[in-house]
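Memo to structure team: turn this sequence into structure tokens by end of day. - J.P.
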Amino acid sequence: MKFSKLSGSPGTGFRRWSGLSQLFLVSTIGLSVATFLTACQLVTVDYVFVASSAPTATSPNGQIDTYAADSQSGALRKGAPTVSSGGVDPVAMAVSSDYTNLYVGNAGNNTVVHFEIASNGVLTAKDTVTLSDTPVSLAVNTAGTYLYVVSGTTTATLTEYALSSGTIGSAAAQVALQIPGFTTDAVVPTGVTVLANNNVVQGNAVYATVYDQSAYNPGGTTTSSAHPGWVFGFAIGSGGALAPADGSPYQAGVKPSALVSDPTDRFVYVTDFASNQLIGYGIQSGSTLTFLINGPFRTGNEPQSVTIDPRGKYMYVANALDSSVSAFLIDLTTGTPSAAVNPTGAAINSTDTEPLSVAVDPALGRFVYTANYLGNSVSGFRLDPNAGNLTPAQATPYPSDQKPTAIAIVPHGNHSTQTVTP
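Reply from structure team:
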């Protein structure tokens, strides 16, 4: 090894070497500390569960991926191990209001599987109920006492299952969703929602959407003159008894694809897949629906899923054909959704290919995620709580298993959740 002599006096050369070495050492230590502190700042605010419908090389069942959402950026990283959905072709998920139970509907073998959610996001399969037909959509009431399932491919049924500490019990009520005057028509269920607060002041009701395939069948024959799109409403009585709401069912466009109720139990919104519209309703007398007079409202192409932020201020619609999310500001007095938060069009909020499900994080109400069926991914957005507009989250989209169909989110740890109580 050859050393070069430093210029200057004998002592100066050593001092220069020492000074440079110290500077290098301090810089290295500083970088290491900064890296360490940055890593420590990755605080998980939510666990995001994504159901993917494609089978694996070793199992015909679908999969549920668990992601940890960073509290600052909204970026997702893989969390707890992936688990089987407990059945074939998972298509829907729902979470209990205490965030300790996850329910997964598997269309391929007509099952609904209950998972326990641990504090670290780990899922443990607990029990399963087998339906007589294909589950399509799920919802859990706020009290955690009932699970609502709409099922069927040519006949539509709403079933209410009793819950006990999360465990699925026997059916407490079941109703056929038939079009008045056209009871033999083929009816396809598409969604279900239950009012958020379920109290005697604002109402206690469940709603389900269907479309009449005998009246609307693109590429096939139609045999019915019935109006194609409908939303059914039921008041929930003592013991879970379901009574049709006054005037139910209500017209809901051509092909309703999803629905959501706001946190104050005053409004219901339905996406119309065929007409590229959002239909709004006011809730009267606890369960009766009336059209918002200034609707319907324009969405992107083929709206597939809809969600409202926990504060009830903003609404987001996943548009499957556009691969985008439409953002709306909700007038808290009238319920009217306005696209003012996204005035230049839905395409700004681009997702990966074909988003089928959209959700807002419940811990902070600051992040929006979509499950992208053909993109095999999850797209993430930061939500501006003051304006409702979306910006892409760091490193989005995030890889998932094949053909993700549904997304559900629970808060992590002691982060306070965003809620609205009427």
